[in-house]
Here is the input.
Amino acid sequence: MAEAAPPRRGFLVRLAAAAGVAPPALGVIEGRALAASRDEGTDVAILHGALALENQALALYDLGLRRGLFPTGLRSYAVEFRGDHLGHRDTQVALSRERGAEPPEPLADYGFGSLPAGDAMVRAALQAEQAAQAAYASLISQIRSRDYLLSAGFILVDEVRHTTVWRRVLGLKIY
Here is the structure.
């Protein structure tokens, strides 16, 4: 029987599962390694798991921007980060299709409910960014193909930057 995930990792696992992350990718987030033999299928599973997180982040930013939930002075960050996630999504869709796979579509509803405006919206964005950062950091060592590895590295840098900005805005420690 596997040990229970630490509380923070448990949150990330639940968030990733809600976003539709593929079971192999969830296993890595939970602390279980993928099978030793990595192949194109492993890369596709990781791509699709990461794509699910990107789609969820896009949905969150879209909702927050559409409803004016981000504080006025922070809206430019939300717009910039949404743009980054669009680029991540488009890159991963292209990589998936290059491998002959059909990428998963975004969910119709991510169950955000009614998010409050202000700091609560920034905290929701921070949680999504932390989940993405943890997922990329956990999964990057499992990626086999060079083009996806390079792409994931650049995406991880963006996720760290997003997390750092939101943490700083909220007055949280950044290291």
Summary: The chain is about 65% helix and 0% strand. The chain has one domain: 7-169.
